[in-house]
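Technical note accompanying the year-one report. For the benefit of new consortium partners, we illustrate the data format agreed upon in the data management plan: each record pairs a sequence with a C-alpha cell string. No post-processing was applied to the example shown here.
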Amino acid sequence: MNGGPALVSIMRQGSTLIASVHTALDDSQLVRFEHDLVDQIGEHRSRGVIIDVAALDVIDSFAALTLRRIAEMARLRGALTVVVGIQPEVAFTMVRLGMGTGDVPTALDLEEGLALLAAHAPRARSGTSTDTSNGYP
C-alpha cells in the first residue's frame, strides 16, 4: 500500500463486521475488498456484515455485482449481509439501468442496518434442543 488514507475500513462490533467504503474503488480494489471481507468473516466468526456505501456517488455494474457476490459468500459462511447508505441519486440510477442488489437487504443507514441484523439474529428457543451433532435436526 502507499500509506495514503484508507479506501475501506473494516471494524468489528460483537459478531458483526462493519465495512465502510470511503471512496470509489476500481475493479481490482473491489476484488481485494471482497477477499479481505470474506476472510475476516471466518476469522472473527461473524454472523452479520454491514457494508456502508454512503460515501459513494456512483455504484457501477461491477460494484453492484461484487456486493451481491460478497453477500452470497458471507451467507455461505453463515453471515447475513446488509448494504446501507445508498444515496438517492445512486438508487435512482441503479434502478434506471436495471441494476440492483438482488436479494441483498438494504437499509437507509448504519443504525437501521444494525436493527435489521438484530431482527434476523437467531433466537434461542426455550425447551428445544439445538444439538445437531449427530447430523440430524
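Partners are asked to follow this layout when depositing records. DSSP finds four helices and five strands in the chain.
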